[in-house]
Design a protein that fits this description.
mainly alpha
Length: 401
């Protein structure tokens, strides 16, 4: 068993990784174009961030005047004249520090989108640390000695997933920050941290993506499976987590109450957003379709196997139920394949759970088998990063057929 990586070394590696990601974001902006990171929905995320940073409000009228309204979404006013939409308000909040830094340095306007996405790019390093913390917590829970191989497994699952593309490619989307928040939420759940800690992290994930309310099934399962004498304590724990976690809904709730009358609502989830027709086929598409979780990220399949067959059945069961809930939600939406997507982007937040599953698979291998497995991980990373480069430079299409 190898000695564990010290916290100091981890911090230095994370800093180097964050710097490398920021440099990569700058290279993409220089080579492909400065607005690549904020294409599509992210155009409106940036408009929201600019309104928060420079106007101190969420009236996007003047931002549409400055930036344009690519998809005509600003034509959907509310009864009080406030113009929708602020999209992905959590991702917009993450852009504010970069925008303020850009403004304070007095740089050219062309670099504004890149600076807005600095935190998203740097989040890769924080996500790795969160995944690694979750793996360490599981080892501690099982009484296993930590080893530095965990750092490699956490990095491998992350680099072979969709998250890097949404950190240095379409970095204006919420998916990279979502993976960061969910990584630390995974750590808190595995380590059974205090309800206040778990609830606060859950609230952060919900601010980024409302679908993360589904993580509440984890403490619910802890309650259901607890011995009778502990159920009262588990109920109190679950209620504490839920109460604090629901704070993450406050921004969208305030928007809906303060500015009523929109046709679509603050997050544009109207009845047309969902489609339950042919749900079985859509479930298969989420996993194995053109942007499917397992098809696009084959290591995800290993992660699922590890969670289903690993020695810590309680953790595996809870993780699989969270994943199943996320997959079911993705199958219920109208656009199952995610439009122009680099893999199953809506499932970026479950990457930390898949890292746990990958660890559980590798742990069961012999020393010789592990050498082969690690070589396979290198190949998986190389293929994924190769696809990332081809996608960013436009040499492969990410559109659904």
């Amino acid at each position: 068993m190898l000695h564990p990586v010290s916290p100091r070394v981890r911090a230095l590696v994370a800093l180097a990784w964050a710097l490398a990601s920021v440099i990569a974001l700058g290279i993409v902006a220089r080579v492909v174009g400065p607005t690549y990171a904020v294409a599509g929905d992210a155009h409106y995320v940036l408009a929201t961030a600019r309104s928060l940073a420079f106007d101190g409000d969420l009236d996007l009228t003047n931002q549409y005047w400055v930036m344009g309204d690519r998809w005509g979404l600003g034509r959907d006013p509310t009864l009080d004249g406030w113009r929708l939409p602020p999209r992905e308000i959590g991702a917009a909040l993450a852009m504010v520090p970069g925008l303020l830094a850009h403004h304070g340095l007095g740089l050219e306007r062309v670099w504004e989108p890149t600076f807005a996405c600095l935190l998203a790019a740097a989040s890769l390093a924080g996500t790795w640390l969160g995944c690694l913390a979750a793996l360490d917590a599981l080892d501690k829970r099982a009484g296993r000695v930590r080893d530095r191989g965990r750092a490699w497994l956490a990095a491998a699952m992350l680099l072979a997933s969709v998250v890097p593309f949404y950190a240095i490619g379409r970095a204006g989307y919420a998916h990279a920050p979502d993976a960061l928040a969910c990584a630390w939420l995974t750590w808190a759940l595995v380590a059974r941290r205090e309800p206040a800690v778990v609830g606060a992290l859950l609230a952060c994930t919900v601010v980024l993506r409302m679908q993360n309310l589904l993580w509440l099934v984890w403490p619910m399962l802890e309650l259901i499976t607890a011995p009778r004498e502990r159920r009262r304590d588990e109920l109190a724990r679950m209620m504490g987590i839920a109460t604090i976690g629901l704070v993450g809904l406050v921004p969208q709730t305030w928007l809906a109450l303060a500015h009523p009358g929109s046709v679509h609502g603050a997050i544009r989830w109207d009845a047309g957003f969902f489609d339950l027709h042919d749900l079985g086929r859509d479930l298969v598409r989420v996993l194995f379709g053109v942007h499917g979780l397992v098809r696009w990220t084959p290591l995800a399949g290993l992660g699922l196997i590890g969670l289903a067959s690993g020695p810590d059945t309680a953790i595996g069961r809870r993780a699989l139920v969270v994943i199943a809930a996320m997959v079911l939600l993705c199958a219920c939406v109208r656009d199952v394949d995610g439009g122009d997507a680099f893999g199953a982007r809506r499932l970026a937040g479950i990457v930390p759970l898949l890292a746990i599953g990958l660890m559980l698979v590798v742990d069961r291998l012999t020393a010789r088998q592990r050498l082969v497995a690690h070589a396979g991980l290198v190949v998986a990373i190389a293929i994924n990063l190769g696809l990332l480069g081809l996608a960013i430079t436009g040499q492969i299409s990410l559109a659904s057929p």
